[in-house]
Amino acid sequence: MTESVRKTAEDGDQCDAGAGAAGPNTATSQAADATTACTEAPDSPQDPPPASADSEDSYAPDRLRLLQDTGQEGTARRAALARLTDDWLAGLFERAAGRTGSGIALVAVGGYGRGELSPRSDLDLLLLHDGKAGARTVAELADRLWYPVWDLGLALDHSVRTPAEARKAARDDLKVQLGLLDVRHLAGDPELTGALRGTALADWREQAPKRLPELREISRERADRQGELQYLLEPDLKEARGGLRDATALRAVAASWLADAPREGLEAARTRLLDVRDALHLTTGRTTDRLSLQEQDQVAEALGVLDADVLLRQVYESARTISYASDVTWREVGRVLRSRSVRPVLRGLLRGRTAGGGPGRGERSPLAEGVVELDGEAVLARTARPDRDPVLPLRAAAAAAQAGLPLSLHAVRRLRTGAATRPLPVPWPAEAREQLVTLLGAGAQTVPVWEALEAEGIVTWLLPDWERVRCRPQRNAVHRWTVDRHLIETAVRAAALTRRVHRPDLLLIAALLHDIGKGWPGDHSVSGETIARDMAARIGFDARDVTVIATLVRHHLLLIETATRRDLSDPATIEAVADTVGSTGTLELLHALTEADALATGPAAWSAWRGSLVADLVKRVTARLAGESAPQGRSKDEPTAEQERLAVEAWRTGGPVLTLHTRAEGHGETDPPAGSTAGPGAAADSEPEPVGVELLMAVPDQPGVLPAAAGVLAMHRLTVRAADLRSVDPVGEGPVLLLSWRVAAEYGSLPQTVRLRADLVRALDGSLDVPARLAEREQAYARRSRGMQAPPPRVTVASGTSQLATVIEVRAQDAQGLLHRIGRALESARVTVRSAHVSTLGANAVDAFYVTDEKGAPLADEVAVEVARTVENALT
């Protein structure tokens, strides 16, 4: 049979995702040809059949009252909606099929087959017939069933098949086969439905060894596309890993009788996701499974949840339960299929070599005291006594991670029981502390083992303060993980840096705890210091080590913030960092923690450029702590030979000189300077966009250079990732401003440097109205981004950070022309920008400007406050 449309998903949608939607007339002709028809958003019927009595029934108002009834929600409402729909469809069938006799049945499949209907769910229906009624009769019956559904505006996934055709479609398409696992009789011949249900289950169990690997691959591909639900700020409740599709896949695995999912908490997790999806449907009035940011507060209110953060945490907890159950289940499926693939004779030979001689048992290899490897998993030895060995959970976890093995479900549950019976003493014994450090030092292999401990509550049992950060969302586009997973990822990154430090154990524990304060109100670094001090003492570190760990947690942002937002040539900057850190040993640990934290945050938080800034700062502070002079060699603040050449050329020509460096996969290319005697730059837009771009400008000092340069970059749709501005005097005849920009093209290719220079010249002489050009673009952007909420900008004076200038710090939403507006505001305040340090983290700009008065001195306190207010007003 030719299938025009088939099932879209594992949970029972009855259409092929790649098929076009078919309208009612198409469905009629297809039914007459004994083929399948389907629609997700049916077109309005062109030639509907005559109206019947079912148009006068009360289904529509009853359905509306049910959905508006706040006294019936969740599972009860879904079941009630399914029953109401069952009765309506059964009535339609009875009126329409009165003359057809037996041999025809109306069947629910997929989610509707499970008796679950969300407010905007499709109706998954199969019109089953034995082929004796004739094609025209079946087609007429299909019309009398489908048209009333379409008339009410309900989404319908439908098909018309004989049992043999249904089985063939299932053999050809895994998605169809999965839909038939939830067959439920609605009306007509119950024997026909019962026979299909029995054969569908029998076929599935027979074909499961071949079909389950296919189902697993589909799940993996979907996860790659949609991501992991438990970490997404705008998760797809159905498609993402750990979502409703995975829960349905676990039901299919259980129906195969090859393996079963861990059932503890699984149904509750699935129910929670269904409840959230119901609330999402009702609040938006749309068929959607994506929990968007702007809808989370409304959904939380509809569910009676405190706020959107609590809602996300509940969603993450549910997704984590389903993801863990999936991991365990698919591992068991793999083990069973591998054992079945071994020939019987070979199995007999292997059985004779089995340790202990037991039938079907694999060989046990020791991993640690009380822990062995069996069938690719870390399990407890037969002699292990979790109720008498409180260190065993950490020892087993460390051994599993070091061996790159998962902890078996049975082992984790025995460890949980043992931990409850005999918890670790406080402070922990030395072995427990060492095993925790060993677990954290295993690198990426730590993650699945830690997740297994978390799934069974062992982590919270060992470290009670962990509960406050577990599944806690981070509403920051820079962060890719929840707080707890970020902490583990930081430890994973730190494990690769342990050879750089003298105390790897302190680095790993500080990595695990550095954001532990995010579960408490206030500055997470301040509260985290107190919590980390208590936790480190609980783990068994002595007073000196506890102080080091607490210092690392309190100041884990010190190096990156100082390196990217402060003038490293200012002695006050180096002095402040040295006083805070106190020793070279702590500085060494803080350097490694800074890198691990940034790498675990996301790609926007770390780069070679940021790494070089932090390394330069560490070198300067190390020299200060050792009582040495500043490091020898060219510092970051001294111009390079190329910058000196540009500055000389700008002074000689009296105009700006630009050069563009592009770097792709470690190779560099440079445009010749634009505006120099070397000739115009080559066309950068003739090459593909590079990975990294550095734009150098040298401009004779004059008013308005910063806003003019920033405005020209914005006009050419160049996004500023970082910037640095300083003044040099190349020949002793007057200052030249050096501006170093790290930029990326918003889209398309990079502009030519000669075009940038020409527009910069016009912007400086006033012939190019940069503010007007940017205002037009901002208005267009505002129309496109309507509804997007961003926190208001904040501009402050960073007191005591420099002896040579006043530091104005700006935090704002990154936007086109932001730096231009800041520069204009500073110009209007009649201050001189001595240097600027611009950085962008995701959608957030964090910029620091070292400014002085017209005499080159720091601003008076009241003047500095007024300048900050001026800039903030310009951005508001």
From TrEMBL:
Residues 1-58, 663-688 are annotated as: Disordered. It holds the Pfam family HD. Residues 807-876 form the ACT domain. Residues 1-366 are annotated as: Uridylyltransferase. SUPFAM superfamilies: ACT-like, HD-domain/PDEase-like, Nucleotidyltransferase, Nucleotidyltransferase substrate binding subunit/domain. It catalyses: [protein-PII]-L-tyrosine + UTP = [protein-PII]-uridylyl-L-tyrosine + diphosphate; [protein-PII]-uridylyl-L-tyrosine + H2O = [protein-PII]-L-tyrosine + UMP + H(+). Its cofactor is Mg(2+). Keywords: Hydrolase, Magnesium, Multifunctional enzyme, Nucleotidyltransferase, Repeat, Transferase. GO terms for molecular function: [protein-PII] uridylyltransferase activity. It comes from the Bacteria. CDD domains: ACT_ACR-UUR-like_2 (cd04899), HDc (cd00077), NT_GlnE_GlnD_like (cd05401). Residues 483-584 form the HD domain. Uridylyltransferase (UTase) activity is inhibited by glutamine, while glutamine activates uridylyl-removing (UR) activity. InterPro entries: ACT-like_dom_sf, ACT_dom, HD/PDEase_dom, HD_domain, NT_sf, PII_UdlTrfase/GS_AdlTrfase, Polymerase_NTP_transf_dom, UTase/UR. Signal peptide: none annotated. Its EC number is 2.7.7.59, 3.1.4.-. Residues 15-44, 671-685 have a biased composition (Low complexity). Has four distinct domains: an N-terminal nucleotidyltransferase (NT) domain responsible for UTase activity, a central HD domain that encodes UR activity, and two C-terminal ACT domains that seem to have a role in glutamine sensing. PANTHER family: BIFUNCTIONAL URIDYLYLTRANSFERASE/URIDYLYL-REMOVING ENZYME, BIFUNCTIONAL URIDYLYLTRANSFERASE_URIDYLYL-REMOVING ENZYME. Modifies, by uridylylation and deuridylylation, the PII regulatory proteins (GlnB and homologs), in response to the nitrogen status of the cell that GlnD senses through the glutamine level. Under low glutamine levels, catalyzes the conversion of the PII proteins and UTP to PII-UMP and PPi, while under higher glutamine levels, GlnD hydrolyzes PII-UMP to PII and UMP (deuridylylation). Thus, controls uridylylation state and activity of the PII proteins, and plays an important role in the regulation of nitrogen metabolism. This is Bifunctional uridylyltransferase/uridylyl-removing enzyme. The gene is glnD.
